[in-house]
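Our working data are protein records whose layout never changes between entries. An example says more than a description, so a record of this kind follows.
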Amino acid sequence: MGGVQDIPVIKIEGRTLPEVWEKAVIATWRDGLSIKTEYDKPLDPSSKDCTMIMAVDEPMTEPRIHRAFPGGLEDLEVYRQEVVLGIHDHWIKPEEGKWTYTYHQRMFGFNSEGKTVDQVEYIIKKLSETPYSRRAQAITWNPGMDPFTDDPPCLQRIWCRLVKQENGKLSLNMNTHWRSRDGYKASFMNMFALTDLQAMIAGEISKRIKKEVVVGRYVDISDSFHIYGSYADEFKKFLKTVGERSFEEKTWSSEFAQPFFEDAKERLKNEK
């Protein structure tokens, strides 16, 4: 008689974003539970799924970009601006069948009991006053709206805390908590944008307390970190590619990506 197979819990730790992301998706494919999803078509294979904990020791250390993440460098910059700057918050129009939220809108302008709450400002203010506070967090889930939509937020919460390093500098640690996410096609862009938000928060705290605040470790926790069976063949090509290349051949620095980021900024200007 076979035992019960539960959702595995996988922890990946490393120095940089691309290193940790690559290890995480490979481990999910290898060790994840085969399970159906609400989005499967009748003939789709099961997804690979796990509860994933990714710990990035130095999230701002270069290289920060994995060449094999699904998407282009211009798309990465647009997404970063959506999360950190809210450049597409004006697309939120559920009454017209459009977006019901953005992460930026939920973190910087959450509607609570008829009031608009800037939760990121709260984090900055709280940690500027009490660096070791455990209350510096922002949530995204709106229980009056999200359970009833087709595309509720994957990101649920960010949590921050300052710690003093041996050299006396303050280090901003950040955790992000995710209900569910596509490990292969979404999580790298998520991590890239959220660590940029981490750097922004560290910079704002530094200005207020007039002390250097460095970006510390980033921990990313997903209840369901998955790779869809519907694109299994595409993912197998990814595995072959990363297996044949060195780390240097699989990554880009932010400096290399900067011209593409500038093109994205021009595209956004024209969009307006």
